[in-house]
């Protein structure tokens, strides 16, 4: 088990980001990648098509997107479709991400997400009563895996107070060339700029809370180049970004976002679970009934 030191805990609170190499074994990285490839192979894009645009201002908030809060859905890369909406690359290379309840619906991702090691890490970093809210398998495909605009995770997963914490697991080496994370250490102390809220008319849209600009990528950010097996922990207010994958190598990662069960979770958040799929504590396996 990887244990964080007091110095690393201090660093996380100072920077809003912590990089822990060797958190995930090579075997586990392989198993998660293989399982994701099975899910992508079984996906039928003609039956269940939905784009996930990584331009935050034009994100489509369609019914499929909202329903994916309680499901496992493959979202396609816009760059993988022609003007008629047909795939221009093999299906395995067309998926941008899989979301958003892998951790509760797929046994392989469930076993990984609810590990004692992760529950311990969340506790050590000060996240109390952590529940697993959202999971994403992020593909960042070779040559055209798209940019994810600079954002704060609390925009999408808002609680009062802000508690969302991102655990980003590199399942392959992540470099500047294949689209690693970039972040602005220390800027988790800056205000939340936007919320992504459900609207009464359906769908969801951005609501501006603060006009302060987010850091401009890439100059205002630092790259977080990491090897496979690393976990990057991100404070919910920390601005972060990733660029286009310009390389011939994919950059697969798994991301799990947790919030504190004791914080208020608004009904206006885009992510609302079905009542028959309640959120679970990260440590539920280690808690006596
Ligand atoms: Fe994020």
What is the percent of helical residues? 10-25%
Strand content: 15-25%
What would the principal axes of the Cα set say about the shape? globular
Unique ligands: fe (ii) ion
- Average residue-wise pLDDT: 92
Rounded radius of gyration (Å)? 18 Å
Characterize the main sheet.
Answer: 8 strands, antiparallel
* Structural classification: alpha+beta
In DSSP terms, counting alpha (H) and pi (I) runs of 4 or more, how many helices? 6
Distance between the termini: 25 Å
| Topology, number of strands | 14
Plain-language structure description:
By secondary structure, this protein is an alpha+beta fold. 18% of the residues lie in helices and 24% in strands. It is built from six helices and 14 strands. The strands form three sheets. Strands 1, 2, 3, 4, 6, 11, 13 and 14 form an eight-stranded antiparallel beta sheet that branches. Strand 8 and strand 9 form a beta hairpin. The protein is globular and about 50 Å long. The two termini are 25 Å apart. About 3% of the residues have low confidence. The chain binds fe (ii) ion (FE2). Fe (ii) ion binds next to loops.
Summary, kept brief:
This protein is of the alpha+beta class and 289 residues long. 18% of the residues lie in helices and 24% in strands.
Please describe the topology of this protein.
Elements lengths: L5 H10 L1 E4 L5 H17 L20 H5 L4 E5 L18 E6 L1 H4 L1 H7 L2 H9 L5 E9 L9 E4 L13 E6 L10 E3 L10 E5 L5 E5 L13 E3 L6 E5 L4 E3 L10 E8 L19 E2 L8
Antiparallel strand pairs: 1-11, 2-3, 3-4, 4-13, 4-14, 5-12, 6-11, 6-13, 7-10, 7-12, 8-9
């Amino acid at each position: 088990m990887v244990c964080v030191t007091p110095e690393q805990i201090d660093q996380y609170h100072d920077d809003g980001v912590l990089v822990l190499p060797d958190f995930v074994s090579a075997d586990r990285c392989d198993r998660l990648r293989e399982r994701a490839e099975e899910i992508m192979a079984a996906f039928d894009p003609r039956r269940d098509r939905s784009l996930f645009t990584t331009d935050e201002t034009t994100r489509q908030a369609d019914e499929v997107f909202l329903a994916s809060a309680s499901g496992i859905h493959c979202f396609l890369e816009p760059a993988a479709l022609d003007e008629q909406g047909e795939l221009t690359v093999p299906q395995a290379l067309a998926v941008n991400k899989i979301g958003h309840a892998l951790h509760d619906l797929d046994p392989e991702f469930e076993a990984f997400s609810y590990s004692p090691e992760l529950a311990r890490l969340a506790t050590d970093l000060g996240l109390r009563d952590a529940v697993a809210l959202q999971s994403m398998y992020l593909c960042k495909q070779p040559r055209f895996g798209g940019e994810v605009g600079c954002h704060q995770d609390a925009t999408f997963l808002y609680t009062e107070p802000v508690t969302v914490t991102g655990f980003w697991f590199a399942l392959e080496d992540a470099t500047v060339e294949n689209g690693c994370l970039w972040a602005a250490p220390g800027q988790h102390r800056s205000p939340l700029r936007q919320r992504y809220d459900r609207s009464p008319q359906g769908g969801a849209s951005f609501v501006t809370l603060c006009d302060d600009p987010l850091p401009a990528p890439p100059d205002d950010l630092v790259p977080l180049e990491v090897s496979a097996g690393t976990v990057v922990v991100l404070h919910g207010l920390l601005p972060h970004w990733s660029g286009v994958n310009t390389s011939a190598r994919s950059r697969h990662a798994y991301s799990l976002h947790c919030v504190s069960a004791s914080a208020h979770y608004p009904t206006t958040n885009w992510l609302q679970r079905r009542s028959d799929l309640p959120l679970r504590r990260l440590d539920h396996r280690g808690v006596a009934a």
